[in-house]
Amino acid sequence: MDLEMESMAASIGVSVAVLRFLLCFLATIPVSFLWRFVPGRLAKHIYAAGTGALLSYLSFGFSSNLHFLVPMLLGYASMVLFRRRCGIITFFLGFGYLIGCHVYYMSGDAWKEGGIDATGALMVLTLKVISCAINYNDGILKDEGLREAQKKNRLIKLPSLLEYFGYCLCCGSHFAGPVFEMKDYLDCTERKGIWSPSDKGLSPSPYGATMRALLQAAFCMALYLYLVPHFPLSRFNDDIYQAWGFWKRLGYQYMSGFTARWKYYFIWSISEASIIISGLGFSGWTESSPPKPQWDRAKNVDILGVELAKSAVELPLVWNIQVSTWLRHYVYDRLVQKGKKPGFFQLLATQTVSAIWHGLYPGYIIFFVQSALMIAGSRVIYRWQQAIPPNMALVKNILVFLNFAYTLMVLNYSCIGFMVLSLHETIASYRSVYYVGTIVPIVLILLSYVIKPAKPVRPPKPRKDQ
């Protein structure tokens, strides 16, 4: 068996550990398919927890489930013992344990060399544990102090331990996401809310959407395997790269970032297929005639939205969508004081939390600080664009194009740090293009204090007596 695994791994150019993970990751699709047919709520929770733990054991070994138990039990204990503070307690305990694992395993080095461990799965699990505790904390707050997302996701009643374990490990979603809410998991298993039987006899079929996700995954992996030999990250250290001119080096940075993204597109497409076929990915019906089922709850990436983003502000809405939503609901929004507008501090704090969640490598920290600058610079161009009067369409279109080109350049410049991780390699790659992706956003931010756009003219509101 081991010899077969080694030969199979060698044939596709990965390590045995990565092959084992990929096989278990693909197995989440049939496992999730069977979950939808398990009769009864109790049996569904047992099946979800049991299969999740089994796949984790087969992927990463016995120790992985011990690592998962720590934040899960800490989060549940905080909900039982300290409901009024369980959200903040679980946030710091969960992130504290995750950071400890990041430091101990230094998984980024292993991932670059073809290894794998349970840290990536622990990252997703940590977000689920924290959101559950915060929503249980929100369950005792008054309606008038809550945002719409808080009202929708809050938990009035403490989930049972079995429900909690089922939620955390269901459908292998802790492998690579997507992150979803405890309230949605419970509603799905109990056939409540949008999962309740339709008055019109409609029952959402997941098979078409699942097939689309699988075809997308196959295309993404094929393109990644084709591109990666042509644009290796190791070339940033080669003399040939240093001998190139500025524009060729900038172009190579674009192509290396473009290549790396297809690996993530493949992973998220598989996880999307897994959640869709389980039924958890269902997000409601369209208003068309006849109505069609939507599966946005499972969507983690919009590939064209990323590659053709008109503004850096759009990127969190189309890349790692469910984690971006989690960061907005549980970090960004909660840092905004009542009656005040969010600013650069909330953006930088959110990006810093995201960086720590990924790991403590300098490349991660630099990338997410860069992301905050990138988004802030894009907002400046967008404000100028919105201030242009309608009779100057050409100028407005020029600014739209500039924002697109700016986003393309700064995104692929910034993501080098995310890929190479080390401080030396990140700074060397940035220096090779004269720090253009850092300088341009800073210049735009400074210019916004000098060139303050007028507020766009809006049509007057109709009077009530008209």
Q: How would you sum up this structure, described in words?
A:
The mean pLDDT is 88. The chain is mainly alpha-helical. The protein has 3 domains: 15-195, no CATH class; 203-301, no CATH class; 311-455, no CATH class. A hairpin with a 7-residue loop joins strand 1 and strand 2 (293-294). The radius of gyration is 23 Å and the shape is globular. The chain has a two-stranded antiparallel ribbon. The N and C termini lie far apart (80 Å). Helix 1 packs across helix 2 (16-35), helix 4 (62-81) runs parallel beside helix 7 (119-138) and helix 5 (86-105) runs antiparallel to helix 7. It has helices at residues 2-12, 16-35, 41-60, 62-81, 86-105, 107-112, 119-138, 148-153, 161-169, 173-176, 182-190, 207-227, 239-243, 246-278, 303-307, 315-318, 321-332, 344-358, 362-387, 393-420, 423-432, 436-450; strands at 284-285, 293-294. It is built from 22 helices and 2 strands. InterPro entries: LPLAT_7/PORCN-like, MBOAT_fam. It is found in: Membrane. It is a multi-pass membrane protein. One of its GO terms (biological process) is triglyceride biosynthetic process. Keywords: Acyltransferase, Membrane, Transferase, Transmembrane, Transmembrane helix.
List the keywords:
466 residues, acyltransferase, 3 domains, mainly alpha, 22 helices, single chain, membrane, MBOAT_fam
